[in-house]
Automatic annotation (TrEMBL):
GO terms for molecular function: arginine deiminase activity. Pfam families: ADI. This is Arginine deiminase. Belongs to the arginine deiminase family. It comes from Goodfellowiella coeruleoviolacea. Its EC number is 3.5.3.6. The gene is arcA. The lineage of its organism: Bacteria, Bacillati, Actinomycetota, Actinomycetes, Pseudonocardiales.
Length: 432
């Protein structure tokens, strides 16, 4: 493993994001890193996916609600669907990075191992003795074994055998989780987001997902490919999830505020982006606090440099509070104003087009639930979408958008589509 040499202080192994990142909270000097994302639709060059694995096998009818799944996926089929998704991207020349591969490579670094073990072992749940035993066990596990424990979790019956009596072990059911699984890890969009040449480790709102950012944090801190990448935003700040962050144009962000991202999260993300020179305008966009609209990207995604696909039910009501820097480290707040005109103004275009999906309200509601509006652009006017959203896809095609259809019958049970399942790490700039 390459030595961890950066232009900024080495992270604290048990808390990589604790590094002091420059002037504003979460800010560092520009790294000149080779990764950069300035828009939603610039030709996609590199993307981070997570092929679902053993963590999905932890889902049962007793825990699926708490673990944020609407059903119990058929795991082999979900993996096949995900492989097909990755293949579609590769066929378009996209470099696909798989989170588990990066994690195993990262865990070759002893500081990453320390941080990974620290994130997984919860002394409040295990008690001192069991926590110590688990730490020792994981400390000697191979990188591959540790990566599985970190992603799929561990049950009490999977803990290493121990001498003596432990009340904790004796009173827990053998199938209780000693380390929680992370079945939502495949929604890589939410746990980190690139803005310009910096990566923000987000702050996830739901308890079932919080530990995901420990993994993205150590990957970006210690993987040789990323360890010099600049950071944006503070990983332990107010909740912001990547599904709420849309890069409408270079310097223009929209941040959904609803079930996941809070007003404080949107405001501090904006403050950090302004301090780092990553944005001149952030639109804070209120969305209904419901599961169906958990993130902004469940109702609106960009399909071209000046066009979005949007859930018709919100088209006329979506609003925005434009935030701009006040020049002395603060944030000026305007609005609320209609989202579409506020976005167009900030983007410097005459109009932000909404592809007219013209759906009847029932079909629109069904296809929104199945992530019809959650498309991933691989280039301007070219998007990946779930094939099941037949009507939305047909309307997109009618409007001249090339739709690369993928199957999501099993993947969709986690309530996330192609955008949710992808974290763009590098996009070519938009020219012209
Ligand atoms: N950006 C997204 O909309 N991500 C989908 C996340 C689905 C996951 N089951 C969750 O509830 O967080």
């Amino acid at each position: 493993m390459t030595a961890h040499s950066t232009a900024f202080p080495a992270p604290d192994p048990v808390n990589p994001s604790s590094v002091e990142h420059g002037s504003a909270p979460g800010a560092v000097a520009s790294s000149g890193a080779p990764h950069r994302v300035d828009s939603e639709v610039g030709p996609l060059r590199t993307v981070l996916l997570h092929r679902p694995g053993a963590e999905l096998k932890r889902l049962t009818p007793r825990n699926n609600d708490q673990l944020l799944f609407d059903g119990i996926p058929w795991v082999d089929r979900a993996q096949a669907e995900h492989d097909a998704f990755a293949a579609v991207l590769r066929a378009r020349g996209v470099e696909v990075l798989l989170l588990s591969d990066l994690l195993v490579e990262t865990l070759a670094d002893s500081r990453a191992r320390t941080a990974g073990v620290h994130s997984a072992v919860d002394e409040r749940r295990l008690g001192i003795d069991l926590a110590d035993a688990l730490r020792s066990h994981l400390a000697t596990a191979s990188a591959e074994e540790l990566a599985v424990a970190l992603t799929a979790g561990m049950t009490f019956e999977e803990l290493p055998a121990a001498e003596g009596a432990s009340l904790v072990r004796r009173m827990h059911h053998p199938h209780d989780f000693a380390v929680d699984p992370l079945p939502n890890l495949m929604f890589t969009r939410d746990s980190s987001v690139w803005v310009g040449d910096r990566v923000a480790i987000t702050s996830l709102a739901m308890p079932a997902r919080r530990r995901e950012t420990a993994l993205t944090d150590i990957i970006y801190a210690y993987h040789p490919r990323f360890h010099s990448a600049g950071r944006a935003y503070g990983a332990h700040s107010a909740p912001v999830e990547g599904g709420d962050v849309l890069l409408l144009a270079p310097g223009v962000l929209a941040i959904g505020v609803g079930e996941r991202t809070t007003p404080a999260g949107a405001e501090s993300f904006a403050r950090s982006a302004f301090a780092d020179g990553l944005a001149h305008t952030v639109l804070a966009v209120p969305i209904v606090q419901e599961r169906a609209t958990m993130h902004l990207d469940t109702v609106c995604t960009m399909v071209d440099r000046d066009a979005v696909v949007m859930y018709p039910a919100v088209r006329d009501t979506l609003s925005a509070y434009p935030l701009r820097p006040d020049g002395s480290g603060g944030v000026l707040v305007d609005g609320p104003e209609p989202f579409l005109s506020a976005a167009a103004e900030a983007m410097g275009i005459e109009r932000l087009r909404v592809i007219d999906t013209g759906l009847d309200p029932v079909t629109a509601e069904r296809e929104q639930w199945d992530d019809g509006n959650n498309t991933l652009a691989v280039a301007p006017g070219v998007v990946v979408a779930y094939e099941r959203n037949v009507v939305t896809n047909a309307k997109l095609a009618d409007a001249g958008i090339e739709v690369l259809r993928i199957s999501g019958s099993e993947l969709g049970s986690g309530r996330g589509g192609p955008r949710c399942m992808s974290c763009p790490v590098d996009r070519a700039p938009l020219v012209g």
